[in-house]
Known about the structure:
The structure holds two protein chains of two kinds. By secondary structure, chain A is α+β, with helices and mostly antiparallel strands. Chain A has three domains: 21-90, ATP-grasp fold, A domain (Dna Ligase, domain 1, 2-Layer Sandwich); 96-214, D-amino Acid Aminotransferase, Chain A, domain 1; 226-368, Rossmann fold, CATH 3.40.50.261. Helix content of chain A is 35%, strand content 25%. In chain A, the strands form five sheets. In chain A, strands 7, 8, 9, 10, 11 and 12 form a six-stranded antiparallel β-sheet that branches. In chain A, strands 1-6-2-3 form a four-stranded antiparallel β-sheet, covered by helices on one side. In chain A, strands 14-16-17 form a three-stranded parallel β-sheet, sandwiched between helices. In chain A, helix 9 (311-320) links the parallel strand 16 (299-306) and strand 17. Chain A starts with a helix and ends with a helix. Chain B is of the alpha/beta class. Helices cover 35% and strands 22% of the residues of chain B. In chain B, the strands form two sheets. In chain B, strands 3-4-2-1-5-6-7 form a seven-stranded mixed β-sheet, sandwiched between helices. Chain B has a seven-stranded mixed β-sheet with strand order 9-8-11-10-12-13-14, with helices on both faces. In chain B, helix 6 (188-197) runs parallel beside helix 7. The longest helix of chain B has 14 residues, at 102-115. The two termini of chain B are 22 Å apart.
Amino acid sequence: MKLHEYQAKAVFARYGLPIQNGVVTERPDEIAGLSLRYPVVVKAQVLVGGRGKAGGIKVAATPAEARERARAILGMDIKGERVTRVLVVEAVDIETEYYLAFVTDRRTGRVVAIASAEGGVEIETVAQTDPEKIARAEIEPFLGFRAFQARALGRRLGFAGALLDEFVKIATALYRLYWAEDADLAEINPLASVGGHLLCVDAKLVLDDNAAYRHADRPANEETTELEAAAKQHGLAYVELDGDIAVIGNGAGLVMSTLDLLAHFGGRAANFLDIGGGASAEAMQTALGIVQRKSGVRAIFINIFGGITRCDDVARGIVDSPPKVPASIRLTGTNEVEGQRILREAGIAAGLDPDEGARVAVELARAASEKRGGR
Amino acid sequence: MAVIVGAKTRLLVQGITGYQGAFHTKLMLEAGTAVVAGVTPGKGGDRVHGVPVFDTVDEAVRQTAANACCIFVPARFAGEAALEAIASRLDPVVIITEGMPVHDAIEVLAYARQQGVRLLGPNGPGVTTPGQCRVGIMPTHLFTPGPVGLVSRSGTLTYEVVWGLTQAGLGQSTAVGLGGDPVVGTSFVEALELFNRDPDTRAIVLLGEIGGSAEEEAARYIASAVKKPVVAYIAGRTAPAGKRMGHAGAVISGTEGTADHKIHALEAAGAGVAELPSGVAALVKARLS
Lengths: 375, 289
């Protein structure tokens, strides 16, 4: 789960990381009444990157100007995400911009610290153009991130004296936050030197959803759509896509390959839905309900390979909640004979071959689309 | 021979009294696996399908000489269970559990490396050597013994391809499920090393998916060291960027982790890449003859 900048900065503040004085608001008229030193910066709060280039960050010299800037930014559409809040912070004179982050490195299965004197730009760009300007430190989980590692990184970024001490404090606090809050990514970009001190001018936090149970204080996830949230409540993994064939399958890899199968036969999936391992008849019913709530769905492709999941359970779920749009069903694996029999007796056809099932689903969607076009 | 598990495996099941643990213990026994012990704290003295249950791994190992471990306990206790198994040097330790916090996986992996224990998962289907040993949840009836080693990040996709191989008359040496989480115990490269050394394995199937760079690293290893034919399939060609496709590990960030990038890397390394799962068996057959 990705946090907004203002949410991430609230977490930063709890760990003693230096941030600018600022307020988040949904109402431009409120801004004049806030005790802020001008000029200020009005920043769109969106989860997608690149908001500065999209015009979502503006400087304002007076309260009246800040109100106008906020009015212009609120309601903006940035890469498909509507701006509903702005963060207003006191502007600072940035001397130099640095980069600092902790991230889980899948390759090594460890946390790494990444730092660079080339801050304020995307680190991926720096990694491609000037890889030598990126300093890394790998973290041994049982030792944690140690002060000597922070000092070494700080020196590689060119810090000395009091600024080096500040960098060490910030880096160790950021690691403490990263580990204690179960983060996947904790990033400061830019980490800026301002009047002889370091300041976290932006803040990015991505938290591990699997660890949510040990953090009751986390804010609500704003990344997901309404249907995605509904599916999650039922323990189903659902992702909205832009095609017209609803997909239900079991196992993430199989569902991903199901989307590819549809594309191979010229169709497009309306969603990704994994009913998970050991899914019950109820899970299948819920899944059918969710995928058909999305508008524009013309056909359904159900692709089940029973392992822990049993074909008879799946079949009962389908019979209890028959699809309202034409469906192609592929059902094989554990208790396949029983599952096929249950469907047959309910007058629902199902096959055993995935490629054939996908081809039929694409045909059904195409036929439904033509019928609709002819009206 | 096969890899990781075989006729000498003496399996301990953690979480054996739970719904999934008990169900799969039965199936593992039916597959011929020597399941010698179960562990559930507080349930010591019970029996599950005839298998004695202990309160701790330490006791179970002392009394049954178990040498491998499969974990079915719920996500919030799975990390602790894995550490307990590693402390007793059970090898491999296979975590089936889905939804384990990533930081727990980081600690478990670090401890496993320190103790020299092979870890599979979390969030994987386990490992099966047909005719000898099943550790985990892969359906037994799909398999038949033979020369094809298979390694995968996904459970049901493994079943799909194994079934296709079996129907085409291509048996399997061992099928290894790595797990779908961002941090897992064993990489494609490590599994390829094992199959490359295994005299019973004559061809290798690699089933990858979007996210991370493990398939690209596998491609580099294939180009430099693997002498046996390799056939791959990568799921998620049509997945959008930035969305988590079920597996926590399956997210495309920027250009990294896309299916196309992985497919190109594997093809450049000389591997055959099937466009659909159903195409894998034919490619293997062509390369074996």
